[in-house]
Amino acid sequence: MDRKYIYSGIVSPIIGFIFIGIAIYLNSSWWRLTDNAISDLGNIYHPWVNYPWVLSTGLIIAGAGMTYFTIGLIKEFSGIIKAGLYVLLLGMISLFLIGTFPEGTPPHWYVSWSFFLLSSFGILITGIGFLWKHRGMGIFSILLFSIGWAIAIWALNKFKGVAIAEFTGAFTLFIWVYTLIWWITHIEKL
């Protein structure tokens, strides 16, 4: 796999999390992990949101970088794995669109849910595809999907806000991408 795709997969999630962290810091007077959504930090219609563009910028950069990384992955695989990566690609495009259509704009709800659903099901489908040729990566992917969903559902039922469930989805993707990069560069040497 061409190194430019791998570097994009390494750097993009970090950029996204840094911008989310900055947005949380800038809005720490009112934003709470258990009471809010991450997208609340980018709402352009609420006057109490400080610098909503910070969140949007980070999500656009991370979404573009992860879209590029996923395109690189698609070039390397076939069959069910490739089908799962196409689903993941739609999820990464949705991440870009979350930044483009921040909370308060009509498409936001749809692109936000699309990101979480498509990226997680992309991991699951890719994991199923891995079972035939790369059993360990397949089992890891399916287990990570299952654990991520279990924690997210628990968080949605436990807390008023959805940020913990959203972070669970984001960290699940982060863990999977970094594990896949390690696997590609150290085991498969694509």
Give the topology:
Layout: H1 3-26, H2 52-76, H3 79-100, H4 108-133, H5 135-158, H6 163-188
Brief descriptors of the model:
6 helices; mainly alpha; single chain; 77% helix
Brief write-up:
This protein has 190 residues and is mainly α.
Question: Residue ranges: pLDDT <50 for 5 or more in a row?
Answer: none
| Number of helical stretches of at least 4 residues | 6
Average pLDDT, rounded to a whole number, is 97
Give the end-to-end Cα distance, rounded to a whole number of Å: 5 Å
Helix coverage percent of residues?
Answer: over 70%
* Estimated structural class: mainly alpha
Largest sheet: none
Radius of gyration from the CA trace? 16 Å
Shape: globular
**Topology as a string of helices (H) and strands (E):** HHHHHH
When the domains are counted, the total is 1
Number of separate strands: 0
Strand content: under 5%
Pfam family, one: DUF998
Organism: Aciduliprofundum boonei (strain DSM 19572 / T469)
InterPro entries: DUF998
Protein name: DUF998 domain-containing protein
